[in-house]
Amino acid sequence: MLLLVTAHLVLAALLPTVSRWLGRWAFAVGAILPAVSLGWALTSLTEVLAGGTVDESVAWAPVLGLTFTLRLDILSLLMIFLVSGVGVLILCYCVYYFKPDAQSNSRTSALLVAFAGAMLGLVLADDLFTLYIFWELTTVCSFLLVGQDGNTKQQRRSSIQALLVTVLGGLSMLLGFVLLGEQAGTYRISEIVASPPAAGALTSTALVLILLGAFTKSAQVPFHTWLPGAMVAPTPVSAYLHAASMVKAGVYLVARLSPAFSDHTPWWPLIATLGIWTMLIGGYRALFERDLKTLLAYGTVSQLGFLMVLMGAGSHTVAMAGATMLIAHGLFKSTLFLVVGIIDHQAGTRNIDELSGIRRRFPVLTVIGAIGALSMAGIPPLFGFLGKEAAFEGFLESGTTGDLVVLVGLVLGSALTAAYSFRFLWGAFGTKPGVEDSSAPKPSLGLMVPAAVPAALTLLLGVVASLFNALATTYAEPYPAGDHPYYLALWHGFSLPLLLSAVVVASGVGLHLARDRVVRLGGWLPDFLQAQPGYERTVAGLDTVSYAVTGRFQAGSLPTYLAIILLTFVLVPGSAVLTGGSMPEELRLWDSAVQVPVAILVLTAAIAVTMAKRRMTAVILTGVVGYGIGAFFVLDGGPDLALAQFLVETLTLVAFVFVLRRLPSRFTQVESTRSPRWPKVAVSVAAGALVAVSALVFSGARQAPPEASEGFVEAAPEGAHANNVVNAILVDFRAFDTVGEISVLAVAATGVASLILATRRARRPSAAEETEGPRKSREVRK
Amino acid sequence: MNTVNVTVNLTMALTIGGLYAVGFYLLLQRSLMRIIIGIVIVGHAANMFLQLAGGPPGRSPIVGVSPAEEMTDPLPQAMALTAIVITFALTTFLLALAYRSSVLLGHDEVRDDVEDRRIRRQQQRVDEREEPDEPGADRKFEFGTDNDKEATR
């Protein structure tokens, strides 16, 4: 399994090169791997239907307990049908859809295959972190595919919205995963589902966070607006990512976790409310769209709401309906998108108002589109009908008030679905009075076949209803079945679900016939129900906040930056030291009395440095501080250290003096007039005091004698033939550190040399101009 | 060296704190020379910190001269020795920078960053145009266009 996923990513990396040779046939090369995946899934079918699973695990960072764990079970299998099955169709379709010489072909093909791999990993992942990684990979692929080359404003805006919304959800989901994993004590999804953590505030929080991720990915209200926006992507991309597979990731996650959590408090109420709301809003908005593709996108939003409800409910029959609708939706929506793609490709438009007479021109295409749309509307004997019937039956079974409310919502949503399905048929294929017939060349077979295959499957799985029964039943196994388990069939006798289906279709037809009156509503929604302004307001708000924060902190002045760093140091680690640190048990005033006068000397010299007006004075006083420190080292028992300190201090003084020759003898006094002195003093004194306290706390925190040093002392005479342990450490035990140190010296020396040489060179060619400037500013200073 | 001694020298701690305070104060100045001196002083204090945290003083860590039990810990000393040399390298590099700055600009003052100032001005402009009722109405969020707007204004 892992091999398949990796192969996708490798192939994606190779495709840009391949497409240089093969042009748009690179898409066909890309289709090979999804086909292999589909074949592999089909060979595992019997094993999975028998209740078995295929497991694979690769230790990634074993020390941290991180593994890539993949697992094929019935739900993964269903998703692979969508991911790889639809993937093959889409990639074949792309060969004929895109222009042969389009620049973007290599990019699009590579991204589509990478996406197919990421999505395959997502549906196979059995580890929360593995799932998360693939989840975000699909988001990134979606961003790049929607944005294309980012030439138009719409492409940029839509892709960024899709990215921001889904990444926000993804991050919250990651947080939820960590919480859930810690509660359950394992990050294996199968283990969590087998023994879910006890209900409680933490588990509930985790579930809400995870649902937020699922809702954003699957375009649930109020996050749904990114999906219609993402329709700027090329049609095959929309069909694959934004109808058949990626947007189902959220639904998949809900389906994956529902067996464990459907009876936890926030899970089902949240899913039911938002799912039905999404179904209604999406269906309602689809009634007004004039762009066929956007119409389908709102339809997808609506259907995703429906799927959420079915996957989250947690009863046997509803789960069967969920599995059926999952595949049914994938089939009819890819059919419809591909049909729209063909119409757009041939007629040059997909606007309802401009299309007319397509039915007469393309009868075969009309049949294909009709099968898709009628399956979406829930007309027998098509596959969508089976799913819808099962859903109605499932919510009727229990008869509780809650279920009946949900049922009413589903019936209303289905009526809207039927209405926009008819609207789609009429809009795409119908003949409109006053619109001249669209002239369009016949589409090539390569475009028709990928659209016809899912349509044929829709018809086949609907007519031979028992074909899918075993899959749906296996999927619903975790939920207890009643005495008479439901089975998928076209005819269950004259039953209430059948009546409801009839009501749905009738109201759909009614709504469609009254379309002129409906359209006059103009898709009106009260402001508080609109999601897009909310998104824009949020983003604009973030924008303002980031400007304010950046503007306030990014003031451009070095002292301000350093002061902010120092204040953070005082506040954050400072409060930790003061609250968490403990003072040493015993304080000694000094180790030897000589330390006191040296300390006084050093501190006096240091304070005098801050007051020095002349540069030379300051430098000499710094020298005093340095030699004083050397004295401390002598008293501390470090002769080598003291020697180095004295030598380096002398060298530093010499270097200072060289530079001081170039500079005016007094410090410029600008800063003292510009800002008062005391805030700087306060900040530095506070930070200094904190250092003093932490010096005490850290030094008092010693618990064990230093073993490393003891080893050095023991090994020095024999191992390094040296009696001076410090020397032995520097040149022998830790010789590589010293090599590093020497390299630093070499780099610094190079830097110094080049700076000074460059300065000389810069001065030479335009000596007149260059000296003019400095002299002027020097005069101003005086 | 075999026993853990948790008594801490207060004089050294105070000296370290005082040196850090002076170093920080100098770092907050605008004269590059003062900033360099500040770095030198903070470097001194950090080396002292290493010695203080490294344990109580003792006799020099030379085998044969002092018995192992009375030695100071050699490891912090080795670290501080390395640190001294690296501080020296850093100081000379900074001095070269100050030299170049004084030759090219005639002073060694650290001026404000022009680019950052621009962001600040832009923020003030946003603040002035307060319209919380209708955000996004005339200021639609858009990446990458702000610079262009700025350039045409």
Task: Describe the structure in brief.
The complex is a heterodimer of chains A (782) and B (153). Chain A has 782 residues and is mainly α. Chain A is 75% helix and 2% strand.
Shape by Cα distribution of chain B: elongated
The CATH topology of chain B, please?
Answer: Helix Hairpins
Our count of domains of chain B comes out at 1
Class computed from helices, strands and strand pairing of chain B: mainly alpha
| CATH class descriptor of chain B | Mainly Alpha
Number of strands of chain B: 1
Q: Could you spell the SSE succession of chain B in H and E letters?
A: EHHHHH
Q: Tell the overall outline of chain A.
A: elongated
Question: Which stretches of chain B are poorly predicted, pLDDT < 50 over at least 5 residues?
Answer: 130-153
Chain pair forming the biggest interface: A-B, 136 and 113 residues
* Main sheet specs of chain A: 2 strands, antiparallel
Helix content of chain A: over 70%
The structural class of chain A is mainly alpha
**Cross-sheet strand order for the largest sheet of chain A:** 1-2
Radius of gyration of chain B: 26 Å
Task: Tell me which oligomeric state these chains represent.
Answer: heterodimer
The average pLDDT of chain B is 77
β-strand amount of chain B: under 5%
Keywords (chain A): Antiport, Cell membrane, Ion transport, Membrane, Transmembrane, Transmembrane helix, Transport
Organism (chain A): Actinoalloteichus caeruleus DSM 43889
Subcellular location (chain A): Cell membrane; Membrane
Membrane topology (chain A): Multi-pass membrane protein
